[in-house]
Each structure stands twice: as structure tokens, then as C-alpha cells.
């Protein structure tokens, strides 16, 4: 399969909850596709509040990116992607891992600056 050479990790803002619109934009996946994936992948389970509004957490966005990579980049079917996730056979994505390390480092630096005040 051809690898996308311009692939770069999306920037996930440092916040606790994301609406479906924000998640859709960040992950570049249409909202109706996210709702469908929620039905297919039990691991994707955003918090639902008033009026059944969805609120995704960072872990949900990372799962969306994994599902997207399996389906679009690696050519898996929905069933194949489910099996990969359920059997924990997902290869680590260095771009997502690098993003998480950068995010944690930034958070720790912010905490340190608060503590030094």
C-alpha cells in the first residue's frame, strides 16, 4: 500500500472535552462517520450529556485517529480494524506518540511555572 508522505500528526488542543464538531475537524473525519464508528467500535465511547450531546476526550481522539489509519491508510475493513484493536495488534504510531510526549512536556512545564510563583 502507498504511504501518505505528507502525513503529520494533527494538533490536539490541550483541553479536556471536545464537541463532535471539534473532533471532526481535528481528526479530519466527518461527524456522521464518527457517529457510525461509535456504533461499530465499542472503544470509541464519548461522554453524552444534555440532549445526547457528545463530548470526546483526548483518548477518544487518539482512538479515532487509530481507526482512521486502519481503515483509510492500511485498507482494513471495519471487521478487520475491530480485530486489530481487540487483539491489540495496532502498531504504535510515532507521530501520535511524539505528539503525546510533546503535550505532556508542555503540561509539566506549565505546572512547574505555576508552582514557582
Quick take:
With 117 residues, this protein is mainly α.
What would you note in describing this structure?
- The protein is mainly α and about 120 residues long.
- The chain has a domain at about 20-90: Multidrug-efflux Transporter Regulator, Chain: A, Domain 2 (Orthogonal Bundle).
- It is about 55% helix and about 5% strand.
- The chain has 5 helices and 2 strands, in the order H-H-E-E-H-H-H.
- A two-stranded antiparallel ribbon has the order 1-2.
- A hairpin with a 3-residue loop joins strand 1 (about 45-50) and strand 2 (about 55).
- It is globular, with a radius of gyration of 16 Å.
- The chain starts with 19 loop residues before the first helix and ends with a helix.
- Residues about 1-5 have low confidence and may be disordered.
Describe the secondary-structure layout.
Elements: H1 20-27, H2 31-40, E1 47-49, E2 53-55, H3 58-73, H4 78-86, H5 94-116
Antiparallel strand pairs: 1-2
